[in-house]
Amino acid sequence: MRLFFLSLAALPLLAIESTRIWDAAPHSAFTDLIRHKNQWLCVFREGRAHVSTDGAIRILTSKDGQEWQSLAHLTLPNRDLRDPKITHTSSGGLMLTAAAAHRERDGQTPVPHDSLAWFSKDGISWSEPAKIGDPNYWLWRASWRKNQVLMVGYPTGSRDGSTRLYTSNDGRRFETLVPELVKEGFPNESTIIFQKDGTALCLTRRDAKGFNGLIGTAKPPYKDWKWADAGARIGGPNFIELPDGRLIGVVRLYDNKTRTSIVELNASGGLKELETLPSNGDSSYAGLVWQKGELWISYYSSHEGKTSIYLARWKP
Questions:
Q1: Which of 122, 154, 216, 251 is the most buried (most CB within 10 A)?
Q2: What is the pTM of this model?
Q3: Residue 103: partners with Cβ closer than 8 Å, 6 or more residues away
Q4: What CATH number is attached to the domain comprising 57?
Q5: DSSP class of 9
């Protein structure tokens, strides 16, 4: 068991602070963060490299965000497990999703992918993985509202396909709700959040034809979407709505220097960079939790040489 001891409590709380919490593997990346039963859980991928045959999911736990230890380690034979995301189901349990890439050698891409979901009550013992969505569609992040969960999937074998919007009532059996959600610009990684009135907002990454990300808006039953230009190229999109109504995201930005930044988003289009996290190069893919007036942020970065997992706290 590997332990990390931070000294956040001994430091004056600045507007933003960041500390490395894990670096056991040669490459650790693609994080998510959740508060579950008065404990923090941080999930991420670790392996030999950014793309390798040994990709596994590590789950860390902490009572206070200062001392972290390994809680679980998920692997599948001959599969590269990628981009784990964790959320609460409608019953309060945990749902973990990831892609399983069928690789024969490190660095191999594109390859066949399956999207998988695991379920747990405590974060220690997990169910067998269930295949979700369609083969070779990467269902990137699950977002629950009451008894419904939405996930955006994108094709992994082509840069010409469109994203699909999937829906489920149990997180195991998904149906296509919108066959073509975003069609142009190689849309891919997408995060959906829900506002109090049920309105869904979606932040989508694009990697062709202008590259700028998109912000989508839809009312229930989430079949009719309106899209606006996010105003910048983004990677690893994640965002939340603060109690004061502001939309705050953490994304990878590419202009001038690749970095991970906190941004303020406008549902009608555009974003404003607020803070740059200690980061560069291979970085981003944040988990976000609002806790007692602070935004807690898990992310990864290679700015200190080895690609590692970091925890930041930001006071708006």
A1: 251
A2: 0.94
A3: 51, 52, 53, 78, 79, 80, 111
A4: 2.120.10.10
A5: G
Domain residue limits at 200: 3-314
- Find the distance separating the first CA and the last CA of the chain, reported in whole Å: 35
Q: Closest Cα partner for 238 from 308, 159, 134, 312?
A: 312
Tokens of 139: 């269902």
**Please, how many CA atoms are within 13 Å of residue 141, restricted to the half-sphere of its CB?**
25
Cα–Cα dist 246/295, whole Å: 12
CA distances from 82 to 23, 29, 114, 204 (A): 17, 9, 10, 18
- Please name the residues in contact with 39: beta carbons below 8 A apart, sequence gap of 6 or more: 61, 62, 63, 123
- What is d(CA 128, CA 115) in angstroms, rounded to the nearest whole number? 13
- DSSP secondary structure code for residue 128 in this structure: P
Decide: helix, strand or coil at residue 253: strand
Counting the structural domains of the chain, the total is 1
Which amino acid, one-letter code, is at 168? S
Nearest to 34 by CA among 147, 189, 144, 129: 144
Burial of 97 (0-12, 13-18, 19+ CB in 10 A): buried
Inter-residue long-range contacts of 245-253, CB under 8 Å, 24+ positions, other chains counted: 246/316, 247/201, 248/274, 248/288, 248/295, 248/316, 249/203, 250/277, 250/284, 250/286, 250/288, 250/297, 250/299, 251/203, 251/213, 251/284, 251/286, 252/283, 252/284, 252/285
Predicted confidence (pLDDT) per residue in 261-311, tens digit:
999 999 999 999 999 999 998 999 999 999 999 999 999 999 999 999 999
